[in-house]
Amino acid sequence: MMITESTIPLFVAIPLAGAFLTAMLKRVKGIPDTLGVMSTICTFVMSVFAVMRLDIGERLLSNIGFWGGFSEVFGKIVGIQLVMDGLTSFMLVVVNLVAFIVAIYSVNYMTRYTAKWQFYSLFLLMVAGMNGVIITGDLFNLFVFLEIASLASYALVAFGTGKRELEASFKYAVMGGVGSLLILLGIIFLYSNTGTLNMGDMAVILSEQGMPSIIYLVFGLFLMGFGLKAALVPFHAWLPDAHPSAPAPISAMLSGVLIKALGVYAICRIFFNVFGFPEQISSLLMTLGAISMGVGALVALRQWDMKRLLAYSSISQVGYIMLGIGIGTPLAIAGALFHLFNHSIFKSLLFLDSGAVEYATHTRDLKQMGGLSKRMPITSTTTLIGAMSLAGIPPFAGFWSKLLIIVAAVQANHFGYAIWAVIISIITIGYVLKITRFAFLGTLRKRFSDIREVPAFMRISLIVLALICIFGGLLILPAIRGGFIGQAVSALLMGKGA
After folding, report:
1. Among 493, 77, 480, CA closest to 271
2. CA R_g for the chain
3. Pairing mode of beta strands 80-84, 60-64
4. Cα 398 vs. chain centroid, distance in angstroms?
5. Can you give the pLDDT of all 498 residues of the chain as single tens digits?
């Protein structure tokens, strides 16, 4: 398969087509599962070929709409521009890999819910929205795709239709709407000062004319809006309710990739490639990252709901990513992006494991569990692997990405942040051991004596993610020196100081 300019729109078109075909053919048995899996495997394979196609510093542009004469008259790009560069291809691999594995898991898991076709239609719409955010080259379409993904996620959080799910979805929708409004206001102010929505044009205009004072207001609006999408402290209040309430596959998507695509990626793309990553933003991101690391980890220690514990853990781990991005050196950015990849894998694994436990035991309360490893050996083993990667225990993948961030902090003379990262990693060990100790070790409770391991498709998903956690650390040298992470770092640093 050859990735060219003309194939870039397929990253949105394929999941969109899958979503609408699923709704149209809903009465045909097996169609929702088939279209869900086939759509995501197509976009995942395309993303892998995109990584192989690009060299460091290279990018592909796909132009859609009225071009030529209009662009010449106005002196700016007129139309829709889709961009494929190192950062784009990296994020596409992360999003579509997790989406593919989650789609496989959902074949068995979602049989306990009614209207599976509705789940897959919303799921594929969310994937299409995330892919659109990643490949778009202008801020208006970034906002449109962000809203598509957000609206689908609001509905998916409420998919259980219970009181708790509906309440969490409403809270998530309200706070997500506030974040979207802040982002839209920032886009309006930027457009009024630059006369364009294309991010490349904006970067050139701002670098030539300098930063007007209103841009600092835009900084704040974007930081709050995208920070809310990324669940950075203090914009995180929606996440601990939304993630536990959603079905396990959606919890994996929300924590694994949605907060990265709609929040972290957008922050990186705009602040580096449009604004040139000013020093004030660097300090803010490091501060917010450090606060998020501490708050998420400390609150996670107190949780007994397995999914709620993992939700707070996501806040902490996003803090690591933002700390690396905030430091801003090539090594720190490489560590942050590597940790973004690793977190997408091990947190998706742990949420799917929690779904497997709930699927078998009908509870998420760690106090009511115990001894489950005797009846669920695969779930127990994969949970331990995901937990060790989350805690940063060598040789699991999470250790290497945290190590890169800590080393980068030391090299940049941010010794306090480096020490803080080590302390939070030690606290992380405490709450992941809590999961393994209370859920899987000890005496098996009598009421769980007849439970069995989860069905085949769920087991396959858990095993694949666990293997990536084990062997993902092997990616560190080839990926950073010239591979897909190196390409992503290069794409970001091209805009630094513009």
Report:
1. 493
2. 22
3. antiparallel
4. 16
5. 667 777 888 999 999 999 999 988 888 888 888 899 999 999 999 999 888 877 766 778 877 765 554 454 445 556 688 888 888 989 999 999 999 999 999 998 888 777 788 889 999 999 999 999 999 988 989 999 999 999 999 888 888 666 777 888 888 889 989 999 999 999 999 988 888 888 888 888 888 877 778 888 888 899 999 999 988 888 888 888 887 788 889 989 988 888 888 889 999 889 888 888 888 888 899 999 999 999 999 999 988 888 899 999 999 999 999 999 999 888 899 899 999 999 999 999 999 999 999 888 888 888 888 888 888 899 999 999 999 999 988 888 888 889 999 999 999 999 999 999 999 999 999 888 888 888 888 888 888 788 888 889 999 999 999 999 998 777 666 555 556 677 787 777 775 544
Output the six-digit token pair for 484. Answer: 């897909």
Reference 372, options 456, 466, 441, 455; nearest CA is 441
Q: How many domains does the chain have?
A: 1
498 within some domain? no
Residue 360 structure tokens:
């078998």
Residue that the structure tokens 């989650």 belong to: 102
* Residue 270 structural domain: 5-493
Residues with Cβ within 8 Å of 122's Cβ and at least 6 positions away in sequence, in order, are: 19, 152, 155, 156, 159
- State the DSSP H helix or E strand holding residue 349, giving kind and residue range, or none if neither: helix 330-361
424 residue type, one letter: I
Distance CA 226, CA 235 (A): 9
SS3 126: helix
The helix or strand, by DSSP H or E, that contains position 285, with its residue range, turns out to be helix 279-301
Determine contact, residues 379/453, Cβ cutoff 8 Å.
yes
Cβ contacts of residue 401 below 8 Å, gap of 6+? 320, 335, 336, 338, 339, 341, 342
The 10 Å Cβ neighbour count of residue 254 is 25
Please name the residue ranges forming H helices in 195-278: 199-209, 214-230, 239-245, 248-253, 259, 265-273
- The verdict on residue 238 lying in a domain is yes
Burial of 386 (0-12, 13-18, 19+ CB in 10 A): buried
CA 240 → CA 132, 151, 299, 300, 435, distances in Å?
26, 18, 10, 10, 17
Evaluate whether residue 346 is within a structural domain: yes
Beta partners for 61?
83
Q: Please report how the helices 86-109 and 116-135 are oriented relative to each other, as an axis angle in degrees rounded to 10.
A: 170
Phi, psi of 59 (to 5 degrees): -150, 150
Please report whether residue 67 resides in a domain. Answer: yes
* Residue 84 phi, psi dihedral angles, 5° rounding: -125, 110
